[in-house]
Amino acid sequence: MDFLKDIWGFLNTRKKFWMLPIIFFLLVFGALVVLTGGTAIAPFIYAIF
Amino acid sequence: MSESILGISAFYHDSAAALIVDGEIVAAAHEERFSRKKHDSSFPRQAIAYVLEEAGLQLADIGVVAFYDKPYLKFERLLETYHSFAPRGLRSFLSAMPVWIKEKLFMRQMLKDEFKQLCGCCPKVIFPEHHLSHGASAFYPSPFTEAAILTLDGVGEWSTSTIGRGRENSIEVLRELDFPHSLGLLYSAFTHYCGFKVNSGEYKLMGLAPYGDKNSVQVKEWIELIFSDLIDLREDGSFLLNMDYFEFATGLTMCVDNAWHKLFGVPRRKAEDSLGQDHMNLALAIQEVTEEIVLRLARTARDLTQCDNLVMAGGVALNCVANGKLLRSGLFQDIWVQPASGDAGGALGAALAGWHIYLDNPKECSGQDAMKGALLGPEYDSRDILKLARRYQASSLKFSDFNELCGKVASLLAEGQVVGWFQGRMEYGPRALGNRSILGDARHPEMQKKLNLKIKYREGFRPFAPSVIEECISEFFELDRPSPYMLLVAPVREERRNTLPEGYHSLPLYERLYHPRSDVPAITHIDYSARIQSVSRNVHPKYWQLIDTFRQQTGYGLIVNTSFNVRGEPIVCTPEDAYRCFMATEMDYLVMGDFLFSKTEQPLYADRDYWQQTYELD
What ipTM goes with this model? Predict the structure, then answer.
């Protein structure tokens, strides 16, 4: 919760809302890598690229 | 109930902790001194434990913890940089992001977890900006109530240099130069190109610069090339880097080697290759450019603030050659430079920013600086030394009278012996100032060679600094004020200099180096300059007494002072670190507290070879 509060405070203060989807994407992608141990992510990447 | 604030720097390089109690700087230390890992960037657990112990506090007693920069702002800079340079920098992006996603974006939580592990509780955490931390470390401990503030380093969040004004307990930032246009990174790029390690070799580059031939066409051309092709310098000292020549924003190195080779006509020197005149000239060219930029920024600071005094911090503020020239320029009546100007000093700056700005406490001025001679680290007593001696079956002689010990050590130094000197509290900042030092006689013509090659195991060209008692500064140097933190370079007095032989400047490096240039050759650099540490009787009584005894015996109130370590090793912290360094090098004597250890009387030290391989060359 601290993180969400801090990141929102930061984006709001700096008016850098364009960073929000990037951070969201990186976090989701990062979580996927961590949770899947880096192997099951491959199909996602192939699908995207 | 006393009010306390803990400052920390961590997770980038040079972790440290600093503690302020009721406005007084009680303790500060680098993590590397405890972990024995040079530039240790990990969470400073041991440094925090030490500063709390020094103050007799527990973490639960700490009101606020100040972390020395703002991680989200730094993340913003990274994303915007990658975005603006895309698709260049994809590899760098992919290598940087995992650590951000996993750790640094959650810095507050990470710090809380670390503190919970330490004591089961977590104080409030604040995040002053990186350059505010530097500025605070420069202004608040300075002896001035009002001063211009100049911070110069590689990069913090966005800022690479700032000009500000400090007045009473407030700091106002007036101008800032943003990434990627950075004086620190420009200097680091040259450090890299001349074959030294970034973040540690900058000091070597500065020491190499005087070997460059100032009157050569090459140096003049290169200075012009730097101004025409690498940077666009403005009158106010601000500048733009030509990013076609630099890789640091997007790549994993500092500069585009091929482009530099084409521009300067010399290839990048590989680490540990021999040094040619070309690289010395390149070092001189960038040193001169750096000095010009620093002077222009200082002039702007003076114009904007109308202050008579200047305070400085940030890695570039450790460029004591530039500091000396700035002082001699007369732009400011006085200059004060934070002795821990690198990122480790950010821990102290963050704590001071928290104390004065966040908690709104006044700055008190006694006319002296508040750094206590930078002697803010741990101290060990006779029992610790005796314990060490028993463990290593080391033989020592105890002196009950400190005068007698000084007399003995002074005579050993005068005989040309090299003495490790371990006393009192360890220094905070990158310089050893006489409590964790290796000492020698500056008059000895072979001393520089002996210290570099047989004791420190480092490059032979590197100069040594003198420790001179305050009363004797002007006897040896063209300097009219103290320089307690070894942060000013000044010329050796003309009457002490020797005439150089004809064609001296075209001689090979080591022939030039070993030609005695003055009656104190070990501390006289090739251009007759010296990086001075003045020693005050009040701040540093034991060290002062030793040098004064040396003066009584020899007529010279100065000695060579170099940090107590070998190349790649953090400065020694404990008696054991000191003894091991003593035994693994060709140091002749070691003094710890009241004990004198003679090398010839020590048992065989089996770990010598292993110990030397422990430390990676810096």
Answer: 0.79
